[in-house]
C-alpha cells in the first residue's frame, strides 16, 4: 500500500497548490507532473497517489501517463540530470567522446545515477541545437551548446562543488540564432498587429480566401493545404473551435522553429490569432517541446505584451467579439507527440498515443472540438499572407510549392544555421551557400525524410521534387552512411511509443539487424530481411512514425549499397552465428585454443 505524503510535507503542499491552480482538471495532468518534478527533482509514488486522488482518477492512470514521457522520473535521478544530444550531427562533433569523458570524471556510468544521488548522465534523441553542437540539456531546462573538453572538465568541477546550474557561467547558455540567409519570414519583422488588422479588415471569409489563393501548404512535413484545413475546421460543427501551434520540433536535424519562437514569436502568435479569426476560435495552444523549456519565459512575456497591446484577449484590435487567447503547454520528451493526434492527447493530459483517424482533428480534436493544428512556420507564413495578400505569396516559389521555406542546415559545412529560400531552390545551391565541400549525401527532412546523393544535387526543394520539414543534414565523403542509417534506426526504435506491434517490434528488429551488420556478422540475407521489415513497417503501422522508420535505411541501401556491403562478411547467405566470437571468452578462460577447432572463413 502506498502511504500518502504527510500533509505538512513540501511534496504535499506542492501537490495541493498545483491542484488548486489547475482547478483539479485531469487535462492539466502532464503540466502538473512537470511542475511537480521541477519542484521535487523526481515524482515520488506518494505524491502521484495524492495527485490521482485530487484529480479523481486512478493511480494507474497517473502512473501510465508518467511512464509514457521520457523526462518524467519515478526514481531519484540526481541533482544534476545531464542529457547529451544523441543526434548523428552531435556524434560527428564528438559528443560521444565528451560524454565518456564527463562520465569518467564524475565516476558515473551512462544511464545511471551516481550512488550519492548527485548526478546522472544519459542521452536525449536530439536537443534541437544541431547547428551549434555538441549540445546537452541539464535538469530538462538549461541547454549547453558548443561543448568541448575544457567545458566538460569545468562542468565536472562545478557538479562536484555543488554549484547550482543557475550560477554556472552564463555564456555557456547563450544559444545562437545563426540566421545565414533571410527572406520574408526571417527578414525584418512586421509591426505587431499590422497583419492582424489587415485580416480583420478582410473579414474571416476574405482572409480564408487569401490563404487558399496563396496555396500555402503546411510546413510540418506532410504539406497539407492550410486553406483547406482551416475551411474544414471552420465549417465543422462544435460549440468552440481550437487553434494549436505544433512547436514540438522533434525531428532530428530541425531547429528552425526554435529560432522563430525565440526571435519571431510575435509573428507566430499573430498567425495563430489570424487562424482564430478565420475559424472563430477563442482558445489556442502552443505545444512546446520539453527540450525548449528555456524559451518559456520569453514566450510568456510576448503573450503578456500582446494582451496589453490588445492583440490577444477580448475585442482584439478593437473588434467587438473577436476574443482569443493562447496557453503554452510543455511536452516532456516524446517525439511521437509531434504527430498531431498524439499531440492533442498530450494536450488533454494523457499519454501521447496517436489516435485512430477518422475522425480527423479538424472535426474532432482537442476535447472533441474542431481543432486546426499547424506548424510554427505555417503560422508565420499566414501572418505574411494577411499583410501582403495571397497572390503575392503565390508569386514566390513554384506553382505546387509556393512561398519560401526555412532549412535547418547542419553537419559537414562551414556555416551551419538557418537558410530561407523560395521553394524551387536547388540542393547544390544550398550546399554552396553553407560552405559544404566534398559532400556525398544530404539527409533532407530528418530521419523520416529523404537521403539525397551527390548525383541528385541538381534536384529542387519543393513538394513536387524533394519535400522537407526543414532539416538539411550534410555528410561529406569521410562519413560512413551505414553508421548514419544505423543512428536513425536507433532513433526510431527509441521513440516508438509501443502502441502497435509492427512498429514496436519492427523498429527493434531493424536495429538488431543493423547491429549485426555493424559487428561484421551480416550477409546478403540480412539486407533481404531489412527490405521485408521496411515493407512491413511501411504498410502496417498505426502512425507516420512507424511508416517512415525505414525511410533512411531504404535510401542508403539503394544509394550507398557498397557501404552496406562492406559490412557483410559474405555476400552469400551464411549462418548469423559466429562460432569463433562466441567461443573466444571460453578459450581465454580455459587457455585452450586449438587451431583445428576454428571455423574456416570464406575466401
Ligand atoms: C511522428 C511524427 C512527428 C511529427 N512531428 C511534428 C513536429 O514536430 N512539428 C510539426 O509541425 N509537425 C509534426 N508532424 C506532422 C504533424 O502531425 C502535422 O501534420 C503538422 O503539425 C500539421 O501542420 P502543418 O499543416 O502546418 O504542416 C509529425 C508527424 C509525425 C507522424
Ligand atoms: S507506429 Fe509506432 S509510434 Fe506510431 S502508434 Fe504505432 S508504435 Fe506508436
From TrEMBL:
Keywords: 4Fe-4S, Iron, Iron-sulfur, Metal-binding. Residues 482-527 form the NADH-ubiquinone oxidoreductase 51kDa subunit iron-sulphur binding domain. The keyword DNA-binding does not apply. It comes from the Bacteria. Its cofactor is [4Fe-4S] cluster; FMN. Pfam families: 2Fe-2S_thioredx (PF01257), Complex1_51K (PF01512), NADH_4Fe-4S (PF10589). GO terms for molecular function: 4 iron, 4 sulfur cluster binding; FMN binding; metal ion binding; NADH dehydrogenase (ubiquinone) activity. InterPro entries: NADH-UbQ_OxRdtase_51kDa_CS, Nuo51_FMN-bd, Nuo51_FMN-bd_sf, NuoE_N, Nuop51_4Fe4S-bd, Nuop51_4Fe4S-bd_sf, Thioredoxin-like_sf. Gene3D superfamilies: 3.10.20.600, Glutaredoxin (3.40.30.10), NADH-quinone oxidoreductase subunit E (1.10.10.1590), NADH-ubiquinone oxidoreductase 51kDa subunit (3.40.50.11540), NADH-ubiquinone oxidoreductase 51kDa subunit, iron-sulphur binding domain (1.20.1440.230). Belongs to the complex I 51 kDa subunit family. This is NADP oxidoreductase. It comes from Rhodoferax aquaticus.
Amino acid at each position: 500500500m502506498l502511504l500518502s505524503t504527510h500533509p505538512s510535507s513540501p511534496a504535499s503542499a506542492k501537490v495541493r497548490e498545483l491542484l488548486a491552480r489547475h482547478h483539479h482538471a485531469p487535462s492539466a495532468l502532464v503540466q502538473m507532473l512537470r511542475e511537480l518534478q521541477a519542484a521535487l527533482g523526481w515524482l515520488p509514488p506518494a505524491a502521484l497517489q495524492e495527485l490521482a486522488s485530487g484529480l479523481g482518477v486512478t493511480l494507474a492512470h497517473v502512473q501510465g501517463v508518467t511512464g509514457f514521457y521520457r523526462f518524467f522520473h519515478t526514481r531519484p535521478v540526481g541533482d544534476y540530470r545531464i542529457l547529451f544530444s544523441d543526434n548523428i550531427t552531435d556524434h560527428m562533433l564528438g559528443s560521444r567522446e565528451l560524454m565518456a569523458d564527463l562520465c569518467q570524471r564524475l565516476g558515473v556510468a551512462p544511464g545511471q545515477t551516481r550512488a550519492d544521488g548527485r548526478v546522472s548522465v544519459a542521452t536525449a534523441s536530439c536537443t534541437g541545437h544541431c547547428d551549434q553542437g555538441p549540445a546537452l540539456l541539464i535538469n530538462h531546462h538549461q541547454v549547453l551548446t558548443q561543448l568541448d573538453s575544457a567545458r566538460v572538465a569545468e562542468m565536472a568541477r562545478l557538479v562536484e562543488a555543488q554549484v547550482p546550474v543557475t550560477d554556472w557561467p552564463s555564456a555557456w547558455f547563450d544559444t545562437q540564432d545563426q540566421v545565414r540567409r533571410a527572406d520574408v519570414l526571417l527578414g525584418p519583422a512586421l509591426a505587431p498587429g499590422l497583419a492582424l488588422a489587415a485580416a480583420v479588415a478582410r473579414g474571416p471569409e476574405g482572409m480564408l480566401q487569401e490563404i487558399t489563393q496563396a496555396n500555402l501548404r503546411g510546413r510540418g512535413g506532410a504539406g497539407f493545404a492550410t486553406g483547406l484545413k482551416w475551411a474544414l475546421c471552420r465549417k465543422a460543427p462544435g460549440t468552440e473551435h481550437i487553434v494549436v501551434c505544433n512547436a514540438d520540433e522533434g525531428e532530428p536535424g530541425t531547429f528552425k522553429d526554435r529560432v522563430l519562437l525565440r526571435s519571431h514569436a510575435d509573428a507566430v502568435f499573430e498567425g495563430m490569432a489570424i487562424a482564430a479569426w478565420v475559424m472563430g476560435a477563442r482558445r489556442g495552444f502552443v505545444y512546446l517541446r520539453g527540450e525548449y523549456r528555456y524559451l518559456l519565459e520569453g514566450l510568456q512575456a510576448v503573450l503578456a505584451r500582446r494582451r496589453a497591446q490588445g492583440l490577444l484577449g477580448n475585442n482584439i484590435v478593437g473588434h467587438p467579439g473577436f476574443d482569443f487567447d493562447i496557453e503554452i503547454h510543455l511536452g516532456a520528451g516524446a517525439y511521437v507527440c509531434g504527430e498531431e493526434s498524439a499531440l492533442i492527447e498530450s494536450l488533454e493530459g494523457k499519454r501521447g498515443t496517436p489516435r485512430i483517424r477518422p475522425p480527423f482533428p479538424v472535426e474532432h480534436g482537442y476535447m472533441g472540438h474542431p481543432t486546426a493544428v499547424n506548424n510554427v512556420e505555417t503560422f508565420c507564413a499566414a501572418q505574411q499572407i494577411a499583410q501582403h495578400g495571397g497572390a503575392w505569396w503565390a508569386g514566390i516559389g513554384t506553382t505546387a510549392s509556393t512561398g519560401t521555406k526555412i532549412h535547418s542546415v547542419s553537419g559537414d559545412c562551414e556555416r551551419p544555421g538557418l537558410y530561407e529560400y523560395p521553394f524551387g531552390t536547388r540542393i547544390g545551391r544550398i550546399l554552396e551557400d553553407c560552405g559544404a565541400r566534398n559532400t556525398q549525401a544530404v539527409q533532407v527532412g530528418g530521419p523520416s525524410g529523404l537521403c539525397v546523393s551527390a548525383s541528385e544535387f541538381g534536384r529542387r526543394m519543393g513538394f513536387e521534387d524533394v519535400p522537407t520539414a526543414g532539416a538539411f543534414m550534410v555528410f561529406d565523403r569521410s562519413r560512413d552512411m551505414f553508421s548514419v542509417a544505423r543512428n536513425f534506426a536507433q532513433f526510431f526504435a527509441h521513440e516508438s511509443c509501443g502502441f502497435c506491434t509492427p512498429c514496436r517490434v519492427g523498429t527493434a528488429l531493424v536495429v538488431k539487424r543493423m547491429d549485426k551488420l555493424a559487428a561484421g556478422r551480416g550477409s546478403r540475407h540480412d539486407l533481404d530481411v531489412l527490405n521485408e521489415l521496411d515493407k512491413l513497417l511501411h504498410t502496417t503501422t498505426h502512425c507516420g512514425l512507424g511508416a517512415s522508420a525505414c525511410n533512411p535505411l531504404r535510401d542508403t541501401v539503394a544509394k550507398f549499397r557498397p557501404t552496406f556491403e562492406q559490412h557483410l562478411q559474405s555476400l552469400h547467405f551464411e549462418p548469423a552465428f559466429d562460432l569463433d566470437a562466441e567461443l573466444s571468452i571460453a578459450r581465454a578462460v580455459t587457455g585452450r585454443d586449438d587451431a583445428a577447432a576454428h571455423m574456416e572463413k570464406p575466401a
